[in-house]
Please model this.
Amino acid sequence: MKNDLSARAGFKDTIPTLSGYIGVGLAFGIVAKAAGLNVLMITLMSAITYSGAAQFVIVSMLLAGSSFSAIVLSVFLLSARMLLMGMTVAPFMKKESLFRNVIIGSLLTDETFALSMNKLNYTNRQLSFDWLNTSNLVAYLTWIISSGIGGALGSLVPNPNQFGLDFAFIAMFIGLLYLQVAADRTIDRRLQVIMILITLVLVYVGMIFVPSNLLLILVTLIGCGLGVLLKHAFF
Model:
């Protein structure tokens, strides 16, 4: 990764993350096809909802006969973390128009957010609309195409997990986390490692007591608070 913030750089920087979109997109298409959705419905859901976890929830709740309001509420709670991510990226887009900020926020994902936070380490804490919008669009189109292909191939792959497709996102995030820690010189390395361990413990314990759709938001807020306290107290 370099300090280039052009659209071309956005395309190149996003390529290493696409395996996650492809793997999980195929898995979603296959699962949705098995649940009775056709390829057109699967593709439209990916284009409109554009949230891997939420789309899996929608399919499972449709099969369970859940009400429309219950599905909407579940998707909102599951995707509420994007509010925090959007607010984090917003200060770097403050010179852009409202329309451009809406575009960025609408297509921002966990992966492009993590990629943009890592990019800051190479650009003197700067981001550009061209770079981030290109990254978002590449990810968006990859997700739609992958889920559509997964739906088309659904009858041929009865169990996508046997190919490890469900681990694609996890592996990608591990790689992004490593790159972030390796490149970030603004925060003490010891603090970064401590916060990673604290986050792991919070998630592990939280899974016992907190509903999964609220866990990520709760851990994010607690982790950010603890990180600020530790930084001011010891680092």
